[in-house]
Amino acid sequence: MAYNLKQINVLDLRASTGVGVALPFNTPAVFQTVYTTKEQLRYNIINFLLTDKRERIFNPSFGAGIREKVFEQISTDTIDSLDSQIRTGIQQYFPNVVITSLTFGGDPNQNLLTIQFSYTIRNTSESDNVTISLNG
Predict the structure, then answer these.
(1) Phi, psi angles (nearest 5°) of residue 87
(2) pTM, to two decimals
(3) pLDDT per residue over 90-108, tens digit each?
(4) CB burial of residue 134 (10 Å; 0-12, 13-18, 19+)
(5) What is the DSSP annotation of 41-77?
(6) Backbone angles phi, psi at 11, to 5 degrees
(7) Hey, where are the domains in the chain?
(8) Which of the two ends of the chain, N or C, has the fewest CB atoms closer than 10 A to its terminal CB?
């Protein structure tokens, strides 16, 4: 009989050790420390979704490129292109993430795009979701 053991990241075992920084940078000290790998993964995914291609100098292919689609007319072709870009990028840069749900919504009259992204982390079976709204 096989057991599905939950793996714990070594960084999560030390509660006082910071793993990264939270988004957005709006605390009095500018950076708010994150202490778990699950929470840091969430902020890394948000950073990926909000980054455009060629925005990072030494990694020009990093980013989902969502903002370039905001000014296009929201159609099924635009949504399919965004879906493909996000799924490909997540597979490439976050191999430990399994996308469970990726939905798009919004109001085309106000050029509002809403992305709801749900995922599960491999080996830990922890799940989380991210919602991003962009106005054109």
Answers:
(1) -65, -45
(2) 0.81
(3) 999 999 999 999 999 877 7
(4) middle
(5) HHHHHHHHHHPPTT-SSS-TT-S---HHHHTS---HH
(6) -65, -25
(7) 19-135
(8) N
